Recover the amino acids of this structure.
């Protein structure tokens, strides 16, 4: 018999194996679409052995779209201006793992080694993120069965292909969920995973809000527990106690150390692209040729415009210049199919946020900083736990940001790797005979001895909501493998 966490562990592995098989099958069955997208230039002097061809044959469907940028950065570093939009932790990590792989399998070239390294890193991070997500869900929702269902749904989430492809989703989800869990536990070293999440993706910056929120909440609860009769005088006295000042210093320390990697990255970008050098920077010939053929600004060029800005940060400038990312920039008639593609995830987020706000209007006024013991029984009877508040606010910010600024189809993978809200909503909504909080009743009796059978297999009754949710999660998983592996437009 498998405990919930162990069941999640095995199903996470099986889900990754399934995605790898699906992308291989679809990549073999259908020819690649000739997409107008960046492709890392090939060095013709590289030796291509039989094992290299086998790696390309088996896993070539994972190196599409933005995956080409990560492979390029891992191989050559930041040679083109537009590559600065992709943060360095993931390509550095797969580069390091690839070095060890080449020492063991010396017949592989650097390109094949990087693809194998990416698969190993993504699979490891995904499995660990699934386990941590289960722990996080159980901590917040306080229900084993719901936490288990949410973790299983995470394993087959609508953006599943990106969690296995050469993308940052698995690494970012792992660092984000780990950061949130450590924030809840008031870990003073939470700035370390947050800083790493910022070096993985730009939206990692908003993860800083979690330790700040839980730190302030802990302070307020401690204050209200000690002082039943609140007054301005007692508030001032509490604010200047040693423990309170230490807490504020710890929060400031978390913010500074978390942001430090981002600041250092901007300094590094400025130095390599903006600081003039006495000797000319040498880049491989095939890199320079690709730059000239595709009108890309090369390292060492004097045409780097963002260098002359008051605050020379490359990210927003590059997003606008190369991908037209900006306020309402994506609202065009030709993008209607992409809006349809993103509609389900945005609808789920908005639905969840709206229902939570309707259930906990009074709680919203205090932002959870005042521990209302009197109303706890009435609150516990409701669908959504009050502890979800900070995640609802976080999800609201991501949803608004996706609707207004990003390429709308990116919403699916951005939200699926950053917010637990979509999984919690679906886990709380989907019907299941086993709603008991007891660990022994989290799954059907015939499934607890299986590594792959989970609650939505052989379920006797499905209502319409169940069918819609499962069709969305499983349908997007399969369709995503087909579209992405063949260089077709996907999320």
């Amino acid at each position: 018999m498998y405990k919930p966490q162990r069941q999640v562990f095995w199903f996470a592995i099986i889900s990754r194996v399934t995605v790898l098989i699906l992308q291989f099958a679809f990549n073999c069955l259908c020819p690649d679409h000739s997409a107008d997208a960046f492709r890392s230039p090939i060095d013709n002097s590289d030796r291509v052995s039989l094992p290299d061809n086998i790696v390309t044959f088996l896993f070539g469907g994972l190196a599409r779209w933005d995956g080409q940028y990560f492979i390029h950065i891992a191989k050559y570093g930041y040679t083109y201006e537009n590559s600065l939009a992709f943060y360095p932790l993931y390509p550095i990590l797969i580069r390091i793992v690839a070095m060890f792989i080449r020492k063991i399998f010396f017949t592989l070239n650097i390109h094949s080694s990087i693809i194998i390294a990416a698969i190993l890193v993504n699979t490891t991070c995904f499995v660990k993120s699934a386990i941590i997500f289960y722990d996080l869900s159980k901590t917040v929702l306080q229900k084993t069965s719901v936490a288990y269902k949410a973790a299983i749904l995470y394993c087959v989430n609508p953006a599943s292909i990106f969690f296995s492809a050469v993308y940052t989703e698995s690494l970012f989800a792992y660092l984000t969920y780990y950061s949130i869990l450590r924030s809840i536990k008031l870990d003073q070293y939470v700035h370390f995973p947050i800083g790493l999440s910022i070096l993985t993706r730009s939206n990692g910056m908003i993860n800083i809000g979690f330790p700040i929120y839980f730190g302030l909440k802990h302070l307020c609860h401690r204050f209200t527990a000690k002082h039943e009769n609140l007054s301005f005088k007692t508030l001032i006295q509490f604010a200047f106690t040693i423990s309170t000042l230490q807490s504020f210093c710890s929060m400031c320390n978390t913010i500074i150390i978390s942001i430090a990697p981002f600041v250092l990255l901007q300094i590094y970008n400025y130095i390599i692209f903006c600081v003039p050098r006495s000797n000319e920077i040498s880049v491989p010939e095939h890199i320079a040729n690709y730059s000239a053929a595709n009108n890309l600004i090369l390292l060492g060029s004097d045409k780097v415009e963002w260098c002359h800005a008051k605050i020379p940060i490359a990210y927003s400038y590059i997003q606008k210049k190369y991908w037209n990312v900006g306020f309402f920039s994506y609202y065009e008639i030709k993008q209607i199919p992409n809006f349809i593609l993103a509609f389900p995830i945005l609808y789920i987020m908005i639905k969840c946020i709206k229902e939570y706000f309707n259930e906990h209007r009074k709680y919203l006024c205090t932002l959870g900083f005042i521990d209302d013991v009197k109303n706890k029984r009435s609150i516990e009877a409701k669908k959504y736990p009050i502890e979800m508040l900070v995640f609802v606010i976080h999800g609201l910010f991501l949803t608004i940001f996706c609707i207004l600024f990003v390429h709308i189809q990116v919403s699916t993978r951005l939200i699926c790797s950053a917010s637990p809200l979509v999984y919690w909503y679906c886990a709380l909504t989907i019907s299941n005979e086993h709603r008991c909080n007891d660990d022994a009743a989290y799954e059907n009796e015939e499934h607890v001895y299986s590594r792959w059978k989970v609650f939505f297999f052989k379920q006797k009754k499905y209502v319409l909501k169940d069918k819609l949710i499962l069709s969305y999660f499983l349908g997007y998983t399969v369709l995503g493998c087909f579209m992405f592996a063949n260089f077709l437009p996907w999320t």
